[in-house]
Design goal:
By secondary structure, the protein is α/β, with parallel strands linked by helices. Strands 7-13-12-8-9 form a 5-stranded parallel beta sheet. Strands 14-20-19-15-16 form a 5-stranded parallel beta sheet. It has a 4-stranded parallel beta sheet with strand order 3-1-4-5, with helices on both faces. The longest helix is centred in the N-terminal third of the chain and has 14 residues, at 27-40. It is 30% helix and 15% strand. Helix 12 crosses helix 17 (461-472).
Amino acid sequence: MKKRLVASLLCAAMTASMVIGCGSQTNSDSQETSSSQKETEESADLANDAEMEDFESATPEQVQEFMNDSDENTVLVDARPQEAYSGWALEGAANGGHLKNSQLFSARWLDCEYADAAPREAYLERAIEDQGITEDSEVIVYDYVGDQAAHVAQYFNDQGIENVSVFQANEMIDMGTDLESYENYDMFLPTEIVKSISDVKTGKETELSEDAKAIVGENLDNVILVDVGWGNAKESSYFSGGHVPGAVHINTDSYERPRVYVPEKRSDYAKEWRLISLEEFRDDLCPQYGITKDSIVILTGRDTSPQGRLGFMLRSLGVKTYAMSGALTAWSYNGYELDTDEGTLVIPESVDGFGSDTIANPDEILWMDDIKAILSGEVEGQVADNRSEDEWNGEYSGYSYHDLAGRIEGSVWCLQGDDENGEYFDNVDGTPRTQAELVAYMEGCGLDTSKTVAFFCGDSWGAAHIAYFCQSVDINTIKEWGNGWIPWSNEGNEFIDHNGNKVQYD
């Protein structure tokens, strides 16, 4: 179906963490995924056997001082998973969130599954640099359980950062001492909660965990676990790579149906994969999968881009929707098994209707008219192009089935990722970077995150990924443009070609 052929090897190499670009895979790309995953998976990681006793222990008073000072040379670092940092109470903690003024450098980043084209160290070095950690810094690394901080401290030592002490912050966290969290942290669900729901759905357990009950209640009748990705169950990684047990597979083609929108184009370039209308999605697709206005949908799968894409569609209808954190990386890291048994294919239970004839939240996704209003100055905001440099320069359309290359006048280039540096909006484990890091990156690209910013790429898969990540850390001005470059250029809208000329398809 979609994605530039020159990037097929990169796309095939993606496992549980991320996809660079904004398309899904062709059938042949999808078939490569399971074998390429093993071939490209790093044979070694950066984990270590360090223990808290190997480092000087910081005192509560020192930690409190770091929490309240503005000295750039002192850095407080949270070594826990991103989910805990953002707001979830994990590992037995009484509270979620991070100590005030702390940065995030999760111990999970050192040894989680990873098979991207960019080296793992590209993510780790970027985090250190962006968090202002240098060889001259005085660093305190903390955790809750008392082992993650030591692993991160040892990694810092290995990078030449010597003035590092550790702290087990369980008492501070349990007391709620100056904790900060994101209001939208629950756009992602930790794997621990999803695992409990999965176990009950598949009959492995009879009782939900208290954390799971707090999210979905006592009854799972309205809860739908979804594995979302391109291709039907056999074509996708649903069986070949494995899926969360109990999850029904949704093919992205079901809500991005391949159709000819510009019939006068040559057949090689006439077909597009556009999002269907919200009305068609509500009245046709949702009932097929038993999704109603009262459903609770939990999105899983190997790539956060289709999760974000489907997530915004569901949220537009007012459906309570979550994505599982870290795609499948955190799931595997926690030792949870994936289902690869074709005998356990989950068949969706259809319903008569969605239960509502309204679009509850029409502004979740921006559409063509919204973009034109921004570009004309009628509406305040910016349009951000997250495609690759050769696409931005008009040297390549980005897709084998699309023949028009260029950029939209007035848009701002903000690259999503590349082979050398990986994904700029992601941590190495496929979780969102911190709010401060994301704001700094986008503003460095010339974006004003205090105003509406509509991201797009070829078909806006990557834009959905970016918007979902940004909103989960409370940058709510970042939006997905549901159409993207292909519809814009196909419909005769003006653009700038590789020679700098203003042109349009006629």
